[in-house]
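Example for tutorial group B:
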Protein backbone atom coordinates (compact mmCIF):
# COMPACT_ATOMS: atom_id res chain seq x y z
CA UNK A 1 0.00 0.00 0.00
CA UNK A 2 2.91 2.35 0.70
CA UNK A 3 4.14 1.66 -2.81
CA UNK A 4 0.83 2.96 -4.21
CA UNK A 5 1.06 6.15 -2.13
CA UNK A 6 4.68 6.69 -3.11
CA UNK A 7 3.94 6.19 -6.80
CA UNK A 8 1.07 8.69 -6.65
CA UNK A 9 3.26 11.24 -4.83
CA UNK A 10 5.88 10.86 -7.54
CA UNK A 11 3.23 11.43 -10.22
CA UNK A 12 2.02 14.56 -8.45
CA UNK A 13 5.59 15.89 -8.13
CA UNK A 14 6.34 15.18 -11.79
CA UNK A 15 3.19 16.95 -12.91
CA UNK A 16 3.99 19.94 -10.73
CA UNK A 17 0.97 19.72 -8.45
CA UNK A 18 0.56 21.80 -5.31
CA UNK A 19 1.68 20.46 -1.89
CA UNK A 20 -1.93 20.68 -0.68
CA UNK A 21 -2.98 18.19 -3.35
CA UNK A 22 -0.17 15.89 -2.27
CA UNK A 23 -1.31 16.05 1.35
CA UNK A 24 -4.94 15.31 0.41
CA UNK A 25 -3.92 12.27 -1.63
CA UNK A 26 -1.78 10.95 1.22
CA UNK A 27 -4.54 11.54 3.79
CA UNK A 28 -7.14 9.80 1.58
CA UNK A 29 -4.87 6.78 1.21
CA UNK A 30 -4.22 6.66 4.95
CA UNK A 31 -7.96 6.86 5.69
CA UNK A 32 -8.67 4.02 3.25
CA UNK A 33 -5.94 1.91 4.84
CA UNK A 34 -7.27 2.55 8.36
CA UNK A 35 -10.82 1.64 7.24
CA UNK A 36 -9.60 -1.60 5.71
CA UNK A 37 -7.69 -2.46 8.90
CA UNK A 38 -10.76 -1.72 11.07
CA UNK A 39 -13.04 -3.79 8.84
CA UNK A 40 -10.61 -6.72 8.99
CA UNK A 41 -10.47 -6.46 12.78
CA UNK A 42 -14.29 -6.27 13.08
CA UNK A 43 -14.69 -9.23 10.69
CA UNK A 44 -12.59 -11.50 12.88
CA UNK A 45 -15.03 -11.59 15.84
CA UNK A 46 -18.01 -11.75 13.46
CA UNK A 47 -16.50 -14.72 11.62
CA UNK A 48 -15.69 -16.46 14.91
CA UNK A 49 -19.25 -15.89 16.14
CA UNK A 50 -20.63 -17.21 12.86
CA UNK A 51 -18.50 -20.36 13.10
CA UNK A 52 -19.65 -20.96 16.69
CA UNK A 53 -23.31 -20.59 15.66
CA UNK A 54 -22.85 -23.00 12.75
CA UNK A 55 -21.20 -25.60 14.94
CA UNK A 56 -23.90 -25.44 17.67
CA UNK A 57 -26.96 -25.16 15.41
CA UNK A 58 -29.78 -27.62 16.20
CA UNK A 59 -31.08 -27.52 12.65
CA UNK A 60 -27.91 -29.06 11.35
CA UNK A 61 -28.18 -32.64 10.16
CA UNK A 62 -25.72 -35.11 11.50
CA UNK A 63 -23.61 -37.08 9.08
CA UNK A 64 -25.02 -40.45 8.06
CA UNK A 65 -22.29 -42.30 9.94
CA UNK A 66 -23.45 -40.92 13.30
CA UNK A 67 -27.05 -42.14 12.99
CA UNK A 68 -27.99 -44.80 15.47
CA UNK A 69 -30.57 -47.54 15.16
CA UNK A 70 -32.68 -45.79 17.79
CA UNK A 71 -32.74 -42.60 15.70
CA UNK A 72 -33.67 -44.48 12.55
CA UNK A 73 -36.45 -46.50 14.23
CA UNK A 74 -37.60 -43.44 16.17
CA UNK A 75 -38.23 -41.57 12.92
CA UNK A 76 -35.65 -38.81 13.32
CA UNK A 77 -34.07 -39.57 9.97
CA UNK A 78 -37.43 -39.85 8.20
CA UNK A 79 -38.70 -36.65 9.81
CA UNK A 80 -35.59 -34.76 8.67
CA UNK A 81 -35.95 -36.15 5.17
CA UNK A 82 -39.63 -35.21 4.97
CA UNK A 83 -39.02 -31.78 6.45
CA UNK A 84 -36.42 -30.92 3.82
CA UNK A 85 -38.49 -32.22 0.91
CA UNK A 86 -42.04 -31.30 1.96
CA UNK A 87 -42.72 -29.18 -1.16
CA UNK A 88 -41.56 -31.97 -3.46
CA UNK A 89 -43.67 -34.52 -1.57
CA UNK A 90 -46.78 -32.33 -1.85
CA UNK A 91 -46.09 -31.83 -5.56
CA UNK A 92 -45.75 -35.59 -6.17
CA UNK A 93 -48.91 -36.37 -4.15
CA UNK A 94 -50.83 -33.76 -6.15
CA UNK A 95 -49.77 -35.35 -9.42
CA UNK A 96 -50.63 -38.85 -8.16
CA UNK A 97 -54.13 -37.70 -7.23
CA UNK A 98 -54.47 -35.92 -10.57
CA UNK A 99 -53.25 -39.01 -12.46
CA UNK A 100 -55.66 -41.31 -10.61
CA UNK A 101 -58.56 -38.92 -11.20
CA UNK A 102 -57.86 -38.62 -14.91
CA UNK A 103 -57.49 -42.39 -15.26
CA UNK A 104 -60.80 -43.00 -13.43
CA UNK A 105 -62.57 -40.44 -15.63
CA UNK A 106 -61.07 -42.04 -18.76
CA UNK A 107 -62.30 -45.49 -17.70
CA UNK A 108 -65.78 -44.08 -17.07
CA UNK A 109 -65.78 -42.48 -20.53
CA UNK A 110 -64.68 -45.75 -22.17
CA UNK A 111 -67.48 -47.66 -20.40
CA UNK A 112 -70.01 -45.05 -21.49
CA UNK A 113 -68.76 -45.19 -25.09
CA UNK A 114 -69.07 -48.99 -25.13
CA UNK A 115 -72.62 -48.81 -23.76
CA UNK A 116 -73.60 -46.19 -26.34
CA UNK A 117 -72.11 -48.31 -29.14
CA UNK A 118 -74.20 -51.29 -28.00
CA UNK A 119 -77.30 -49.10 -27.92
CA UNK A 120 -76.51 -47.84 -31.41
CA UNK A 121 -76.18 -51.38 -32.79
CA UNK A 122 -79.49 -52.34 -31.14
CA UNK A 123 -81.19 -49.27 -32.62
CA UNK A 124 -79.84 -50.12 -36.09
CA UNK A 125 -81.21 -53.68 -35.83
CA UNK A 126 -84.59 -52.40 -34.65
CA UNK A 127 -84.69 -49.88 -37.54
CA UNK A 128 -83.80 -52.61 -40.03
CA UNK A 129 -86.47 -54.91 -38.59
CA UNK A 130 -89.10 -52.16 -38.68
CA UNK A 131 -88.15 -51.28 -42.25
CA UNK A 132 -88.48 -54.89 -43.40
CA UNK A 133 -91.88 -55.24 -41.66
CA UNK A 134 -93.10 -52.05 -43.31
CA UNK A 135 -91.90 -53.22 -46.72
CA UNK A 136 -93.72 -56.53 -46.26
CA UNK A 137 -96.96 -54.83 -45.25
CA UNK A 138 -96.83 -52.41 -48.20
CA UNK A 139 -96.61 -55.08 -50.91
CA UNK A 140 -99.52 -55.10 -53.33
CA UNK A 141 -100.37 -58.74 -52.74
CA UNK A 142 -100.42 -58.24 -48.99
CA UNK A 143 -102.64 -55.15 -49.26
CA UNK A 144 -105.13 -56.98 -51.50
CA UNK A 145 -105.21 -59.99 -49.21
CA UNK A 146 -105.98 -57.79 -46.20
CA UNK A 147 -108.73 -55.94 -48.09
CA UNK A 148 -110.37 -59.21 -49.23
CA UNK A 149 -110.25 -60.65 -45.75
CA UNK A 150 -112.13 -57.65 -44.45
CA UNK A 151 -114.43 -57.63 -47.49
CA UNK A 152 -114.16 -53.93 -47.39
CA UNK A 153 -113.45 -53.13 -51.00
CA UNK A 154 -114.32 -53.88 -54.53
CA UNK A 155 -110.75 -53.70 -55.71
CA UNK A 156 -109.45 -56.50 -57.82
CA UNK A 157 -106.54 -57.15 -60.13
CA UNK A 158 -106.83 -55.89 -63.67
CA UNK A 159 -107.00 -58.39 -66.54
CA UNK A 160 -105.84 -55.89 -69.14
CA UNK A 161 -102.34 -54.57 -69.48
CA UNK A 162 -101.84 -50.92 -68.74
CA UNK A 163 -102.19 -48.41 -71.57
CA UNK A 164 -99.38 -46.00 -72.32
CA UNK A 165 -100.72 -42.67 -73.48
CA UNK A 166 -98.28 -40.61 -75.38
CA UNK A 167 -98.77 -36.87 -75.38
CA UNK A 168 -96.99 -34.95 -78.14
CA UNK A 169 -94.97 -32.01 -76.93
CA UNK A 170 -95.54 -28.77 -78.76
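The residue assignment follows.
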Amino acid sequence: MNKDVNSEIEMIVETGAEPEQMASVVSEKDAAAETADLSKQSEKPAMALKRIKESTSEDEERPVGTLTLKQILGGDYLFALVRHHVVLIIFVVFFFVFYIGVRYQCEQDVLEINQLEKDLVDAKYRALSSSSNLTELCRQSNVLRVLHENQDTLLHLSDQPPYIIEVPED
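The mean pLDDT is 77. Compare this with the pattern of hydrophobic and polar residues in the output above.
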